Amino acid sequence: MEQSQTMTRPIDWKNVITISGFHVMAVVAVTYMITVRFSVETLILGAVWFTLCGLSITAGYHRLFTHRAYKASRPLEFLYLLFGAASLQNSALTWATDHRVHHAHTDHDIDPYSTVKGFWWAHIGWIMRKSPPHRDPKITTDLAANPLVRLQDRYYYPLAIAVGSILPLGLGALWGDALGALLVAGFLRTVLQWHATFCINSLAHTVGSRHFGEDSTARDFWPIALITFGEGFHNFHHTFQSDYRNGVKWYHYDPTKWFVRLLSFVGVTWDLKRAPAPAIARVLEQESGSRTSTLSDQGT
Ligand SMILES: [Zn+2]
Ligand SMILES: [Zn+2]
């Protein structure tokens, strides 16, 4: 009953039209590159924008603003907020509100992108519906105290258009491919980045291992890390959400943790939080113990 109330909220036509329009333009971008003009410079610009916008979501919106997993200088916060806006995933304040609710109520009705309501709902369906009325501003009081975050929230759309479209358009003009740069670094990059982020809510709650706890559907699935700058180790993240790492082993592909750590050497980031190794080992031991006992229960 509760689920159906959430899933039958009015359709958010603004989001439906924007998302559909961007997907059409992404196809136009590919067609343009194949049939009109293929520019290596434009492709590099798209990759650079994908990286800057991607890290602004993973290192900025997610691990810094939502989870407070480390501290960062104002200029870095500013860059995160600029390129985070260009990612068209809401302002940092709204994004963090949704994500904190997701962590506090994973798999429950109040979870904005619960996979219990279906893979499609968790991936993109939830964005097609109006936001729930129960968003409590108190959940992000700490963030709202940050003037840069408030400013980005207020001017989110102008910033998104300026950094996500106008800037690539202007840069593309430098090598005579303004339209291509807008299509590739603007529309195609946004759509690819959306689906990479959406995969964390859908795929990383459906496929993979749960060595760090089976209390929720969150799973570790390393292939997702390849397209999300290291966010695929989602089971570890749900258990140790304040840890600045998602891939806890040194060999886990987690460019976001490497980026944050690298910047700590030059004082741009600091106070990097890590879950204590004994606590991680204890959880692993408990989980493997409970799995073994479940197996032996099934065998008897
Ligand atoms: Zn999750
Ligand atoms: Zn998180």
Short recap of the structure:
This protein is mainly α. It has one domain (2-208, 222-232).
Task: Name the descriptors.
binds zinc ion, 1% strand
**What is the total domain count?**
1
Ligand types: zinc ion
Strand fraction: under 5%
* Global mean pLDDT: 93
Question: Can you give the helix content as a percent range?
Answer: 55-70%
Strand order of the largest sheet: 1-2
Major sheet characteristics? 2 strands, antiparallel
Q: What distance lies between the first and last C-alpha atoms, to the nearest angstrom?
A: 38 Å
What is the radius of gyration? 20 Å
Overall, the morphology is globular
What is the number of strand segments? 2
* Global structural class: mainly alpha
Write up this protein.
- It is a single chain.
- The protein contains 14 helices and 2 strands, in the order αααβααααααααααβα.
- It is mainly α and 300 residues long.
- It has one domain (2-208, 222-232).
- It is globular, with a radius of gyration of 20 Å.
- The two termini are 38 Å apart.
- It binds zinc ion (2 copies).
